[in-house]
Specification:
Helices cover 40% and strands 18% of the residues. It has 173 residues and is an alpha+beta fold. The chain folds into two domains: 89 residues, no CATH class; 69 residues, no CATH class. It is flat, with a radius of gyration of 20 Å.
Length: 173
């Protein structure tokens, strides 16, 4: 099943780029030269990133360019490109209003400073005041536009994958 989903996503990316190439980029001359990062490869790399540094993501993808070159390529792509790819990708999903389409994401949230809380307190450099962070993992229903579940974790013990599993296990769907 995961391989089918990946194949469908790759097919959707290819279809949108072939059909709407000119509407996805800022300048008609962007991505015309034969370079390491094509439009297709850049989009796939962006969608496949897992939160590591850009240099680590490029190494993992076996792409030998500078971080600056990647950032420049990324900014050539309009944000509408990702919306079109999402729409193309989800066309094949049977629409059923009783089953939500959920997005999962995590964000760091600053909380009041408490240097004694070892799970959330961070000290960057000597002489700087410590700060505290928690990590908020949430399910967002794309159909209704509301959050359906949330899990809060100490920043030092973040496990987004486990948070998604935990939210799925208690979900009525």
């Amino acid at each position: 099943m995961p391989n089918q989903v990946k194949k469908q996503l790759r097919n959707s990316i290819t279809a949108v780029i072939k059909r709407d190439r000119e509407s996805l980029i800022h300048n008609p001359s962007d991505f015309t030269r034969n370079r390491e990062l094509s439009l297709d490869k850049t989009v796939k790399l962006i969608l496949g990133m897992s939160g590591k540094s850009i240099s680590k993501e490029l190494l993992d993808a076996d792409i030998w360019i500078t971080e600056s070159a990647f950032v420049q390529a990324r900014y050539k792509i309009k944000s509408i490109a990702f919306h079109k790819i999402f729409k193309e990708f989800t066309l094949k999903i049977p629409i059923n209003d009783s089953i939500p389409i959920l997005a999962a994401d995590g964000s760091d949230v600053n909380i009041p400073r408490n240097p004694k809380d070892e799970g959330t307190s961070f000290q960057v450099g000597e002489g700087n005041k410590p700060y505290n962070l928690i990590h908020l993992n949430a399910f967002y229903d794309l159909n209704t536009g509301i959050y359906t579940d949330v899990i809060v974790q100490d920043k030092r013990s973040v496990d987004e994958r486990q948070a998604v599993i935990d939210m799925m296990e208690v979900s009525p769907f």
